[in-house]
Amino acid sequence: MQTRVAVMGIIVEQGGDTEHLNAVLHEYARFIIGRMGIPYREKGISVISIAIDAPQDAISALAGKIGKLPGVGVKTAYSNTVFESND
Predict the structure, then answer these.
(1) The pLDDT of residue 29
(2) Mean pLDDT in the chain?
(3) What SS3 class is residue 22?
(4) How far apart are CA 27 and CA 30, in angstroms?
């Protein structure tokens, strides 16, 4: 199986659907390398970054599910290198 490393930048606006966001991230936990969340209280948003190593279709599916959540935006940056996984 081929995988790529990517970074997802997620912005959760005040009132955003954090419960479903966490459920979606849990669904893809096996691919997530690391996660950092920063509440920006002065602006009423949260900034989350996710490092992920997964097949291209899994990364796209995760970004699509996150992007459909109300009050949540996502952008993804991909590595140029494709890796072979033993899984």
Answers:
(1) 97
(2) 95
(3) helix
(4) 8
Cα distances (angstroms) measured from residue 37 to each of 9, 18, 49, 63, 83: 10, 12, 6, 17, 27
Q: Region 61-72: what's the mean pLDDT?
A: 97
Domains delineated in the chain: 2-79 (3.30.70.1150)
The predicted model gives 27-45 an average pLDDT of 96
Helix (H) or strand (E) holding 21: helix 18-27
For 23-50, the three-class secondary structure string (H helix, E strand, C coil) is: HHHHHCHHHEEEEEEEEECCCCEEEEEE
The mean pLDDT of 48-68, rounded to a whole number, is 97
Residue with tokens 């199986």: 1
Residue 51 CA to residue 67 CA, distance in Å, equals 17
Per-residue confidence (pLDDT) for residue 30, from 0 to 100: 97
How far is 57 from 42, CA to CA, in rounded Å? 36
